[in-house]
Amino acid sequence: MPEGSPVPERYARLREALAGVVGPDHVITDSSDLAPYLVEERGRYRGRAPFVVRPANTEETAEAVRLCAAARVPMVPQGGNTGLCGGAIPFESGEEVIISLSRLRRIRALDADNFTITAEAGCILAELQQAAAAANRLFPLSLGAEGSCQIGGNLSTNAGGVQVLRYGNMRDLTLGLEVVLPDGAVWDGLRGLRKDNTGYDLKHLFLGAEGTLGIITSAVLKLFARPREVVTAFVALPSPAAAVQLLGRARSATGEAVTSFELIPRLGLEMAFRHVEGCSDPLDSVSPWYLLIELYGGREAGPLVGALEDLLATAFETDLISDAAIAQNAQQAADFWRLREGIVEAQKHEGGSIKHDVSVPVSKVPDFIAAATAEVERRVPGVRPVPFGHVGDGNIHFNLSQPEGAEREAFLVQWQEVNEAVHDIVVDLGGSFSAEHGLGRMKVAEAERLKSAVEIEMMRGIKRAFDPHNLMNPGKVLISRR
Asked: Degrees (nearest 5) of the Cα angle 251, 257, 262?
C-alpha cells in the first residue's frame, strides 16, 4: 500500500469478507486485471486501488457497501468507465475500493403498455435500446459510447446525447430508482409513475450525483413510441446564427418533430475526411458551417419529408442556407451521422485537444462561439477551434485542436488557463461549464470557483446528510474537506 495509507491487514480482512459475499473470483487483485479499472478513457487520470469488487445483484452490492462502510474504507462506484471527467477513477493514494456494477445486467421488466423498462445498472445502453425495439418501443438516449457505457453511469452523470432536444436527458427519462445508500441500506424507489406528489422527489438527488450519495443499482426508465418515419438531412449554412434561426422554423414547421439538430464546422469535416474511413463530402458546395437534422414521425411515408423539403426550400430562397441533401435511404442517413461522429475520432489524429462541454441558452449559441473563438485565438495564436454538437439544446463541444506544428504537451499545459477563460464567457452568458459530462475529478475546482457559496454549501449539506463519513466516491463533484 502507498505510504500513509491504512495498514494492509485492514484491507486483507475486508477483502476476505467481500470474497465471502461475491465469491473469490469477483474480488480482483491481480495488477494486470486491475489495470482497466484504474485509467480514464482519455488517459488523463490513472488511479490506484487495493482491489475491485464485482457484486452480482443489489443484495451483494448492499452488503459490500455495508462492509466497506463498517471498515471506514472509501468506495468508487464504476460502470462502463467511459466517462470523460475522471468521476469513476480512484485517486492515486490507493485507499479506495472500486465497486464495479458490470455484473448487474438484468432487464427486470418491460411494460409496453406503461411505456417503461426496468433495468439494472450494469446493462449496456445499446442492449437497452435493442430490448425496447424488440417490444416496438424506443429508448431514446443515444451517444457515442452506447456500445460500452452502462445505464448506471448514464444515470449517475445525467447523460445527454444527440436526442435531448426531443426527449430530454437521463433526468427526464427516469421515473424511479433503486439505490444502495452509503451505509448499505437500500432505498426502493422503483415506481413507474408519471405523477407522484408524495413529498421530496428523492431520485433527483442521485441523478447526476456521480455516485457521491449512493450507488444506483436499478432504474425504471421511460419508453416512447417507435418512430415509423425518420428523415435525415445534411444542410450547409453561413453561420451559427443561421442555425439557430433555422431551428425555430424547423420546430414550428414540423410540429416539434425535430429530434436531433447538430452543428458541424467545416474544419471538423475536413479532419474527418482526412482521418476517418468512409467520410466524404455529401454536398457539392463548400460552406463554413453545416447542420445534421433528424426528424421522427409516427407514420410510414408520412408528412415529414414534405415539410422538411418546404422548409429548406424557403430557407434557400431567403439565403438562410446555401445547400442541402435529404437522405434517400438508411445507408445515406448513416453516412451523414458518420460525419458527425467522425469529428470526435478525427481530432485524436490532429494532436492535442483542449475540450469544453458547455451549454448556453440556444439563443446565445452564436454569441458564445464568436466570443470564445476570439478569446482562445488571442491566447493561443494558431489554435484551431472545432465548435460542434447539440445546438438544438444549447450544448456545444468547444474543442480546440493544437496549432499545426505545435508541440502537443506545450499546448496541453494551457488546458486550465484556457478552460477558465472559456468558462467565464459561458457563465457571463447564463450558461453551464459542464453540460452533459459531469464534474468528476476534472471540474470540482471549477465548480467551487464558479458556483455561488450558497449553492456549494447546499450541495455539501446534502453530502453530509447522506454520507457523513465521506466514503462514497470522495473528492468527486465536491472537493473533499477533511
From this structure: 70
Pair 437, 358: CB distance under 8 Å: no
Among 237, 293, 244, which Cα is nearest to 265's? Answer: 237
Phi, psi of 374 (to 5 degrees): -60, -40
State residue 391 phi and psi, 5-degree precision: -60, -25
CA distance between the termini of the chain: 21
Annotation: CATH topology of 229-348: Alpha-Beta Plaits (3.30.70)
Mean pLDDT of the chain: 95
> In this model, does residue 25 exceed pLDDT 70?
yes
- Phi-psi label, residue 443: left if phi above 0, alpha if psi -120 to 50, beta otherwise: alpha
CATH class of 351-438: alpha beta
Contact 421, 343 (CB under 8 A): no
| C-beta of residue 235 within 8 angstroms of C-beta of residue 247 | no
pLDDT digits (tens, 9 = 90+) for 41-74: 888 899 999 999 999 999 999 999 999 999 999 9
pLDDT tens by residue, 313-325:
999 999 999 999 9
Is the pTM here over 0.70, yes or no? yes
Domain-wise residue ranges, the chain:
8-103, 107-225, 229-348, 351-438
CA-CA distance, 309 to 40, in Å (whole number)? Answer: 44
pLDDT of 247 strictly over 50: yes
Distance CA 387, CA 153 (A): 26
- pLDDT tens for 459-481 read 999 999 999 999 999 999 999 87
Q: Find the mean pLDDT for residues 111-138.
A: 98
Q: Which residues neighbour 395 within 8 Å (Cβ) at sequence distance 6 or greater?
A: 160, 164, 357, 358, 359, 389, 435, 436
Q: CATH code for 107-225?
A: 3.30.465.10
